[in-house]
Design a protein that fits this description.
Chain B: InterPro entries: ET-Flavoprotein_bsu_CS (IPR000049), ETF_a/b_N (IPR014730), ETF_b (IPR012255), ETF_beta_N (IPR033948), Rossmann-like_a/b/a_fold (IPR014729). The complex is a heterodimer. Chain A has 3 domains: about 110 residues, Acyl-CoA dehydrogenase/oxidase, N-terminal domain (Butyryl-Coa Dehydrogenase, subunit A, domain 1), CATH 1.10.540; about 110 residues, Butyryl-CoA Dehydrogenase, subunit A, domain 2 (Beta Barrel); about 150 residues, Up-down Bundle (Butyryl-CoA Dehydrogenase, subunit A, domain 3). Chain A is about 50% helix and about 15% strand. Chain A contains 11 helices and 10 strands. Chain A has a 4-stranded mixed sheet. A 4-stranded antiparallel sheet of chain A has the order 2-3-7-6, covered by helices on one side. Chain A has a two-stranded antiparallel ribbon with strand order 9-10. The longest helix of chain A is centred in the middle third of the chain and has 37 residues. Chain B folds into 2 domains: about 220 residues, HUPs (Rossmann fold); about 30 residues, no CATH class. Chain B is globular and about 70 Å long. The chains are: A alpha+beta, B alpha/beta. At the A-B interface, helix 1 of A face helix 2 and helix 5 of B.
């Protein structure tokens, strides 16, 4: 057992931390207030290699491991959740699904430009009438010769208005419930694709969230990811990766709350003492410190399991559930410690709370994760092997240069 | 071109320094970083390499743990890294430090340029660059704000030095020793660089490797003495809000106050 980060991991952490501190921290508040994404964000993240961090070099990525993905998410969300959302959607939910299920041709055509950050990718499962109950989606994909015709509406899609590629889950056989779902790679440029932005969100206000409508959108058969009828499994496997990034990000949010609270508690005086010397403030700080450590260990274990090629649905769910619930509590307590100042946007902690609240809703509500954990513990739920598992991290393979054509 | 960048591992600029009764300085468990002034020199050297080819070698005098600073420089794009480490080096002052660096640079063979930060954020003496130039017998171009031109074939360099009175344009023959001001935006390490740095076995040169005897290095060889080390007295800061009916009135009251305090 080794609880130390490697030199490589430490340097990744340091690099991402510096980027977020130096370039994002100074501007994030105004973008959050204005509900406007940072226009140069993708370009900068691409230049640093973040948009393909754990994708093999031969597919245009940076060739780092899954733990590096987690560490990057922690550092990004320590500054703002909207940065980590990009990693969740573009890298984890979409690009890793292509790595896991895609054909060589699909990887060459879609994964490579995504990993290089030349194209931005999103993930479209949720619908107006289907969130936690993913099998209740109503978007249809009807096969007509060499194409599928997509019709339906997706909502609460992160990066809906900015992405070039969408991983869309639709019903190919509506009679068959979750076994009648399939996954498709849809380009924005395909006919009948319309998107829009949702305004007025409580949090992640510097991030783009929106809706997508497909009106008789023809999708070539070769853009189907996996087999027909495999869509539900692909969607759930994608969530094992997306939830991992949310867990790691929420851990960063807890750390942000802890750092802000410690700083403030050491400065602010009441009754002739620093408020950090008051035991009821100490209780809140102690809980934040504990939940940070627990959340961190949980996500790093999930990342290690991914590196080893072990199934981690249960462990990732636990990490996501714990970290996001703890993030909400940490943000509430951080505001409490900051008193009236924390209640205003002069300080960052109110933003942390607004951002944390979304995390106990998306990528599996806390209620879904509670049930999952109970079912695993009770022996009601067992994970069956998938036709395509997320490939274990192999440094040689990940770093191999593409063969010259 | 072969550029050598001597760097120093320093406490983070936000570290809180304390001095105990015996004059020992501590920065607690604050993170250690590459001296920020050296980062400008690293960045500028990498740009020169990208333009003219060649390599950048980064060296540091310090403990084993200073390898981390070297790895950071390699992750940014430096090609080679050497740690100068020997228990005998401990306590070396700026002049002796320069002598050790000079011995290492000579051992490296053909070097066109030595580029370092103008000073370190912990010691702040700014003495090592001139002492090093003197030891090597090369021209010193201190406080460089811009490199105007480099002619590797003609073996000359033209830089702008930032002086208190303005900017001074200087032409010098190569090899030369340069010290950097804030002259660029240092790059982040790349993932490829991080992978290279993590794998790299960093060479360690001790006094014997450099042909230096124990008497020539360390505290014994150093002329500088520190008879007393103490923390500067805390400055009491008082905040006063100037209030008034209009901006004009506030400005007038502020000017009056500044005149009264002899600030203006």
């Amino acid at each position: 057992m080794d609880f130390q980060l490697s030199d490589e991991h430490r340097m990744v952490q340091q690099m991402v931390r510096e980027f977020a501190e130096r370039e994002i921290r100074p501007v994030i508040k105004e973008h959050d207030r204005a509900q406007k994404p940072i226009p140069w964000l993708f370009e900068r993240m691409a230049a640093l290699g973040l948009l393909g961090i754990c994708i093999p070099v031969k597919y245009g990525g940076a060739g780092m491991d899954y733990i590096s993905l987690g560490l990057a998410c922690e550092e990004l969300e320590r500054v703002d959740s909207s940065l980590r959302v990009v990693m969740s959607v573009h890298v984890a939910l979409n690009s890793l699904s292509l790595l896991q299920w895609g054909t060589e041709e699909q990887k060459r055509r879609y994964l490579v430009p995504q990993a290089k950050g030349e194209r931005i990718a999103a993930y479209a499962l949720t619908e107006p009438g289907a969130g936690s109950d993913a099998a209740a989606i109503r978007t249809t994909a009807r096969r007509q010769g060499d194409v599928y015709i997509l019709n339906g509406e997706k909502t609460w899609i992160s990066l809906a208005d900015l992405a070039d590629h969408f991983l869309v889950i639709a019903k190919t056989d509506p009679e068959k419930g979750h076994r009648g779902m399939s996954a498709f790679i849809v380009e924005r440029s395909f006919p009948g694709v319309k998107t829009g932005t949702i305004h007025g969100k409580l949090g992640v206000r510097a991030g783009n969230t929106g809706w997508i409508v497909f009106e008789n959108t023809p999708v070539p058969v070769e853009n189907r990811l996996g087999e027909e009828g495999e869509g539900f499994y692909i969607a759930m496997a994608a969530l094992d990766n997306g939830r991992y990034t949310v867990a790691a990000g929420a851990t960063g949010l807890i750390r942000a709350c802890l750092e802000a609270s410690v700083k403030y508690a050491n400065e602010r005086m009441t009754f002739g003492r620093r408020i950090g010397e008051h035991q009821l403030v100490q209780e809140m700080i102690a809980k934040m410190a504990a939940s940070y450590e627990i959340a961190r260990l949980l996500y790093l274990r999930a990342g290690w399991m991914k590196n080893m090629g072990m199934r981690n649905t249960r462990e990732t769910s636990l990490a996501k559930w714990f970290a996001t619930e703890a993030a909400v509590q940490a943000a509430l307590d951080a505001i409490q410690i900051h008193g009236a100042y924390g209640y205003s946007d002069e300080y960052d902690v109110e933003r942390y709370l607004r951002n944390a609240k979304g995390e106990v809703i998306y990528e599996g509500t806390s209620q879904i994760h509670t049930i999952l954990q109970a079912e695993y513990a009770l022996g009601y739920r067992k994970d069956r092997p998938l036709r395509c598992e997320l490939p274990a991290y192999d440094p040689e393979l990940w770093r191999a240069e593409p063969a010259m054509a | 071109m072969h550029i050598v960048v001597p760097i120093k591992q320093t406490p983070d600029t936000t570290a809180a320094l304390t001095v105990d009764a015996s004059g020992r300085i501590s920065w607690g468990d604050a993170p250690l970083i590459v001296n920020p002034w050296d980062e400008f020199a690293i960045e500028e050297s990498l740009r020169l390499k990208e333009k003219f080819g060649g390599k950048v070698t980064v060296i540091t005098l310090g403990p084993e743990s200073a390898k981390e600073a070297l790895k950071q420089a390699v992750a940014m794009g430096c090609d080679e890294a050497i740690l100068l480490h020997d228990p005998a080096f401990e306590g070396s002052d700026a002049v002796v430090t320069a002598a050790i660096l000079a011995a290492a640079i000579r051992k490296l063979g053909a070097v066109d340029l030595v580029f370092m930060g103008k000073e370190s954020v912990d010691g702040n003496s700014a003495q090592v660059p001139p002492a090093l130039a003197r030891r090597l017998g090369w021209p010193l171009l201190a406080y460089v704000g811009k490199i105007r031109e480099v002619d590797p074939a003609g073996r000359t360099i033209v830089v702008e030095r930032i002086l208190e009175e303005g900017r001074q344009v200087v032409r010098a023959p190569l090899p030369a020793v340069l010290s950097a001001m804030q002259m660029n935006e240092p790059r982040y390490p790349s993932f490829m660089g991080i992978r290279k740095a993590a794998r790299m076995q960093i060479q360690v040169w001790n006094a014997a490797d450099l042909g230096l005897s124990p008497e020539q290095v360390g505290a014994a060889a150093s002329a500088a003495r520190w008879p007393a080390v103490f923390a500067p007295p805390r400055q009491e800061v008082q905040c006063e809000f100037i209030q008034g009916e209009s901006p004009e009135e506030i400005a007038r009251l502020l000017v009056d106050r500044l005149l009264a305090e002899k600030v203006l």
